[in-house]
Amino acid sequence: MNELEKNENYSNQNFEDIKHFDENGIEYWYARELQQVLGYKEWMKFENVIRKAEESCENSGISIFEHFGCADKTIKMPKGETKNIKDYKLTHYACYLIAQNGDSRKKVIALAQTYFAIQTRKQEINQREYSSLTEDLPTPEKSLKQLEKEDRKYLVI
Hints:
Layout: H1 3-7, H2 12-17, E1 20-21, E2 27-30, H3 31-37, H4 43-59, E3 68-70, E4 73-76, E5 82-85, E6 88-90, H5 92-100, H6 107-131, H7 140-154
Antiparallel strand pairs: 1-2, 2-6, 3-6, 4-5
């Protein structure tokens, strides 16, 4: 049991703390960091969850390469040696699928499922609001003309 499991102090902050942003402001998570937060001690077991998530992604007709990017790392070993380890750069959607395919006996998995589902819903709402914007919105020129009209109303001669 890791420290998170012992304390059972799960919160959305655990996922926020390991969230990263790329140069375009797009959020992502590293699988190795997510593994720790989700309470998986062994990479092999967590990698099985990743495989199931990739399968779900692919079966949905979505490219796994867009959501499960390779992010292999080199780590330092004792005596100055190095070792290459596998890692992934995960999109929000990939994390959602991992949570859905995780060990449901873990409370932190239930939290992850809720966190990523809510975040997904927020993104959907924001996207829908953005899509509903019309070209009837005021432009700087229209705004200036509207201000001029309003000024005339209050102009006393």
